[in-house]
Design a protein that fits this description.
By secondary structure, the protein is of the alpha/beta class. The chain has one domain: 3-Layer(aba) Sandwich (Rossmann fold), CATH 3.40.50.9100. It contains 5 helices and 5 strands, in the order βααβαβαββα. The protein has helices at residues 19-22, 27-37, 51-61, 80-88, 127-141, and strands at residues 2-7, 42-47, 67-71, 93-97, 119-122. A 5-stranded parallel β-sheet has the order 2-1-3-4-5, sandwiched between helices. Strand 3 (67-71), helix 4 (80-88) and strand 4 (93-97) form a beta-alpha-beta unit. The longest helix has 15 residues, at 127-141. It is globular, with a radius of gyration of 14 Å. It binds 1,3,4-trihydroxy-5-OXO-cyclohexanecarboxylic acid. The site of 1,3,4-trihydroxy-5-OXO-cyclohexanecarboxylic acid has 10 residues, from loops.
Amino acid sequence: MKISIINGPNLNLTGKREPEIYGTQSLESYFQVLATAYPDVEFTFFQSNIEGEIVDEIQRAGFDVDGIVINAGAYSHYSLAIADALRAVPAPAVEVHLSNVYNREPERHHSAIAPACVGIIAGFGPDSYRLAVEALDTIHNA
Ligand code: DQA
C-alpha cells in the first residue's frame, strides 16, 4: 500500500512553533517512527509553504498512491484550489490537524477541503497522522 503524506504551510516548524498548541516533536522525527511502525506501507512525505506546490504534489501523487493524508495548515480553511485538486485525483484523502481546530478560533472551524476528503482527524497531535493511516488502511482493505 502506498500513502502520500502532504503537509502545508508552517508545518515544517512543528516542534519549534507554538509548542503549547502543536507540541515539541518535529514531524520529521514523528514520520520516522510512523514509517517504522508500518513497514508494509510505502510512504512519501511532502511539505511546502506554497499553495501551488501542494496542488502539484496532489496531482502527481494522487494517481499513484492508495491514499493521501493531508494537513494543509491554514490553507485547509480557504483553499478551493487544494479542494479541487483532491477531487481531481482517484486516491482517497483524509484531512488531518495536529490541534483540535474546533476548539480554537472560529475561522479555523471551517474546512474548504473537508468536502473533498473521506474524513477528518483533528486534535491528537502527531498521532492524528497514524489514525489517518489506519483509516486509509481500512478503506484499502474493504
Ligand atoms: C493546523 C491547524 C490550522 O488551523 C493551522 O493554520 C495550522 C496547523 C493543525 O495541524 O492543527 O497551520 O493545520
